[in-house]
């Protein structure tokens, strides 16, 4: 098992897993550590347009991996 400290990142599959969990539950766990990821919304878009795009930045407090992805807000409130 390598413990080299490269740029810590999730694999594509892990990112998808996190994104799906977050979309379903509004929260996600680190696929590696099993701890709750810190979610942080990144503002940027203006909410006056037809649709608002939001970015979510999830960081693992344990392994420090992080993933940023766009969150598409659905039609439900
Ligand atoms: Zn982790």
Topology:
Layout: H1 12-25, E1 38-42, E2 53-59, E3 66-72
Antiparallel strand pairs: 1-2, 2-3
Bound molecules: zinc ion.
Total count of helical runs of at least 4 residues: 1
Q: Flag low-confidence runs.
A: none
The CATH architecture can be given as Single Sheet
Spatial strand arrangement across the major sheet: 1-2-3
Q: Percent range for helical residues?
A: 10-25%
Q: Structurally, how many domains make up the residues?
A: 1
- Measure the end-to-end span: 44 Å
CATH fold-level assignment: N-terminal domain of TfIIb
Which small compounds were modeled alongside the protein? zinc ion
Report the order of strands and helices: HEEE
Radius of gyration in whole Å, from Cα? 14 Å
**Helix/sheet category:** alpha+beta
Mean pLDDT value: 81
Per DSSP E runs of 2 or more residues, the count of β-strands stands at 3
Q: Note the quaternary state here.
A: single chain
Largest sheet: 3 strands, antiparallel
């Amino acid at each position: 098992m390598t413990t080299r400290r490269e740029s810590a990142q999730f694999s594509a599959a892990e990112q998808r897993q996190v994104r799906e969990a977050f979309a379903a539950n509004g929260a996600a766990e680190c696929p590696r550590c099993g701890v709750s990821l810190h979610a942080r919304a990144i503002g940027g878009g203006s909410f006056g347009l037809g649709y608002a795009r939001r970015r979510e930045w999830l960081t693992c407090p344990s392994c420090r991996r992080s993933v940023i992805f766009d969150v598409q807000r659905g039609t439900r409130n």
